[in-house]
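Our preliminary data section would be incomplete without showing what the modeling component actually yields. Below, a chain of 138 amino acids is followed by its predicted structure, encoded as C-alpha cells that our downstream tools consume directly.
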Amino acid sequence: MLSISPATRLVKLTAAAGIACLAGVVEPSVAADGWFTQAQATQGQQYFNNQCAQCHRPDLKGAAGPALVGPAFLATWGNKPLSALYTFEHTKMPAVNPGSVPPDQLWAITAFILEKNGFAAGSAALGDAASSRVLTSK
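Predicted structure:
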C-alpha cells in the first residue's frame, strides 16, 4: 500500500484549493457578458431625466420625441451595431442642441436606454470598445 506523508497531503490540498479558487475567478459569468455596468445605467437615468425626458418622457415612452423603449425602439435599432445608435444620439440629440452631451454622459444614457429594453448589466462599462456589438438582447 502506498503511503502519503502529511506534508504531501497538505501540498496537494493547498494546490487543489488554489485551482478551485482560480477556476471561480476566471469562470465567465452572465454579468461579465452584459452590456454596461449597473452603476452606469443608474447614472444614465439621472442624465436622461436632465437632458432627454422632456421630449422622450421619464418612462421612455415618448412625447415630442419617439419612444425609446419597447417594440418601436427594437424595430429601429435591433440587429444594428451599437455604434449606429450612439452616432445618431451624438449627432442628432438633444434636438435643441445636437452633440452637446459629453461622451461619458451619452454612454451612460445609452446604458440606461439599453437597460430599459432588457439588455443585461455586466462588469464593464459601455463605451467605444463595445461599439461594434450588434444590438440583440437575447
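Residues 8 and 14 are 10 Å apart (CA to CA). The chain has one domain: 31-130. Preliminary results of this kind motivate Aim 1 of the renewal.
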